[in-house]
User: Which sequence fits this backbone?
């Protein structure tokens, strides 16, 4: 499944109060931890994120403290484990933890308790880890532990990344480049320390915004292609004129790379009714339906973040050509 499907699946578990333990598999940097955090934030519940590979068994089981009166040892559980309320206990990097640590985690997953600690009823236990084929240093998960999880595998997916990136302020040029070269969204290179992934591109966006090279985040090859794509922006049509409604004589770019940059740029920069209306009318008049579709999808991604969802809906409803396009698109999807 892709990250958006994963988020919908996990959100349903929370909304339906299904406390089945979940194991999320996927490559590094694909957004597993981020998705879990988004689910907790949307549901307004707590999130306790534990990186098991960084803990020792006593960190989770607790410390034995002598009870001199009864001549026994009592286990004092760690303070970071939840005591009440509702939330998600997230055991990240589960299979990077050594067998002894996984054995302690197994008690928590199987029995919802460990030592003298018992997990409150309102909490979900979810975990995540990388696969052997991802080149991660992982340990074999015990079969008894495997069998108590439902297993979800998440794969890189540009549309999911675009939705997240545009709604979280990742620079439009990063998003436009990946729309043109989606193969570079996630491309592991075992010979390089830095390589492109959704997480790396989010960092690259921050570096770019600060005027720095993106190479330390995504590696030399991807950074070189991005730099070449940067030159495309010098040939873009006047986006400000289009947004102002004075771009009727401006033609749609010929090259695919410039088209992606133009459409993503207009979707990102149009925020009020006039600019959204002008951008949409220009794209509908100048381009094929696939570019109208990309604009609408990208604009929906930004609309929640910039509070223009109502503006977009009103603009779509008021444009006869767009309404006809949407009806045709809806019919096509239904038939498939």
Assistant:
């Amino acid at each position: 499944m892709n990250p958006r499907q994963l988020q919908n699946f996990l959100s349903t578990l929370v909304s339906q109060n299904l406390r089945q333990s979940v194991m999320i598999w996927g490559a590094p940097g694909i957004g597993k931890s981020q998705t879990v955090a988004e689910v907790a934030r949307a549901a307004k519940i707590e999130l306790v994120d534990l990186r098991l590979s960084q803990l020792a068994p006593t960190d989770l089981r607790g410390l034995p403290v002598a009870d001199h009166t009864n001549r026994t040892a009592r286990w004092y559980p760690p303070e970071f484990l939840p005591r009440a309320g509702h939330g998600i206990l997230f055991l990240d990097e589960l299979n990077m933890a050594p067998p002894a640590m996984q054995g302690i985690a197994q008690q928590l997953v199987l029995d919802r308790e460990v030592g003298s600690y018992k997990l409150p009823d309102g909490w979900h236990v979810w975990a995540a880890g990388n696969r052997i084929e991802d080149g991660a240093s992982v340990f074999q998960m015990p079969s008894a532990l495997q069998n108590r999880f439902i297993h979800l595998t998440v794969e890189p997916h540009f549309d999911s990344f675009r939705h997240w990136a545009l709604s979280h302020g990742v620079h439009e040029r990063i998003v436009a480049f990946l729309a043109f070269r989606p193969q570079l969204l996630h491309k592991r290179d075992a010979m390089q320390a830095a390589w492109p992934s959704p997480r790396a591109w989010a960092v690259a966006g921050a570096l770019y915004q600060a005027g720095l090279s993106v190479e330390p985040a995504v590696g030399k090859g991807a950074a070189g292609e991005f730099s070449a794509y940067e030159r495309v922006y010098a040939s873009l049509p006047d986006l400000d004129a289009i947004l102002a409604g004075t771009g009727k004589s401006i033609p749609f770019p010929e090259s695919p790379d410039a088209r992606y940059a133009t459409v993503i740029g207009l979707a990102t920069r149009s925020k009020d009714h006039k600019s959204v209306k002008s951008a949409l009318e220009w794209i509908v008049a100048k381009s094929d339906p696939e570019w109208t579709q990309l604009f609408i999808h990208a604009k929906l991604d930004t609309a929640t973040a910039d509070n223009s969802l109502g503006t977009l809906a009103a603009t779509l409803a008021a444009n006869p050509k767009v309404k006809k396009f949407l009806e045709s698109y809806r019919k096509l999807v239904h038939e498939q």
